[in-house]
């Protein structure tokens, strides 16, 4: 399926790391696409049409056919545009292991870090932070002997966990918590630096100061909803 005859559109916002997964994957594959930025406070009719269930981004529109959910989209991209680089390993066992770590990142790491980020300073945040460190240490251990989760080349696990390589720094600056420490998690810290040197990653991060402002406001919104104690 050639890029020239394909019509590919990506519905996203400027800040969501989930849409960045799709940006990285499309650019790694050399797929030409059109970006459509959404304002989630005033969602377009097109977004509501193409993702009527969740009404969220990202949505990939390929020849008028919509696909939603970033991890689903990543697999679709890898299976549709089969040229290298392959995002998932070719061997079934290696693919299964990659999917395990992708699921672990999505279901264990992301909620734990987010919980620590959105809690007020105190016992609940300390407990959430401790849980997040336990999860991150497992990722550090998995990187033993590897530059990236995909080995020497970026793969789908790296893309799925890519938010850690930039957004965690934003969370650290806002909360004063250290999620990825170069002394206690040297492999994960080195992975973070290596991923940020890959051109498609490095060139597509949103402005750091804008992210800092956005997530500061977002955290304050979460804190304002916490019951008074």
TrEMBL record:
A single Gene Ontology biological process assigned to it is: glutathione metabolic process
InterPro entries with a match to the protein in the record: Glutathione-S-Trfase_C-like (IPR010987), Glutathione-S-Trfase_C_sf (IPR036282), Glutathione_S-Trfase (IPR040079), Glutathione_S-Trfase_N (IPR004045), GST_C (IPR004046), GST_C_Tau (IPR045074), Omega/Tau-like (IPR045073), Thioredoxin-like_sf (IPR036249)
Q: Which UniProt keywords apply?
A: Transferase
| SUPFAM superfamilies associated with the record | GST C-terminal domain-like, Thioredoxin-like
Q: Domain GST C-terminal: where?
A: 91-229
What reaction is this protein's catalytic activity? Answer: RX + glutathione = an S-substituted glutathione + a halide anion + H(+)
Where is the GST N-terminal domain positioned along the sequence? 6-85
Q: Enzyme group, top EC level?
A: transferase
Q: What is its EC number?
A: 2.5.1.18
* Molecular function GO labels: glutathione transferase activity
Entry keyword Iron-sulfur: no
Pfam families registered for this protein in UniProt: GST_C, GST_N
Q: Listed GO cellular component terms?
A: cytoplasm
Q: Which family does it belong to?
A: Belongs to the GST superfamily.
Can you say what this protein is called? glutathione transferase
Per the UniProt record, the lineage of the source organism begins with: Eukaryota, Viridiplantae, Streptophyta, Embryophyta, Tracheophyta
């Amino acid at each position: 399926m050639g890029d020239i005859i394909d019509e590919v559109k990506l519905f996203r916002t400027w800040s969501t790391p989930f849409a960045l997964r799709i940006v990285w994957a499309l650019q790694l594959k050399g797929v030409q696409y059109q970006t459509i930025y959404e304002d989630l406070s005033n969602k377009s009719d097109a977004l509501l049409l193409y993702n009527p269930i969740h009404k969220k981004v990202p949505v990939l529109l390929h020849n008028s056919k919509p696909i939603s959910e970033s991890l689903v989209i990543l697999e679709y991209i890898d299976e549709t545009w089969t040229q290298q680089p392959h995002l998932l390993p070719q061997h079934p066992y290696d693919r299964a292991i990659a999917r395990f770590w992708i699921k672990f990142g999505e279901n264990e790491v992301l909620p734990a870090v987010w919980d620590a980020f959105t809690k007020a300073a105190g016992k609940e945040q300390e407990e959430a932070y401790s849980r997040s460190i336990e999860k991150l240490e497992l990722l550090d251990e998995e990187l033993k002997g590897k530059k990236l989760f995909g080995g020497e080349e970026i793969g789908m696990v790296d893309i799925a966990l890519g938010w850690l390589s930039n957004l965690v720094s934003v969370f650290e600056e806002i909360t004063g918590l250290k999620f990825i420490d170069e002394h206690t998690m040297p492999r994960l810290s080195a992975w973070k630096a290596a991923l940020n040197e890959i051109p498609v990653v490095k060139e597509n991060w949103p402005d750091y100061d804008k992210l800092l402002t956005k997530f500061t406001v977002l955290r304050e919104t979460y804190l304002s909803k916490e019951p008074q104690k």
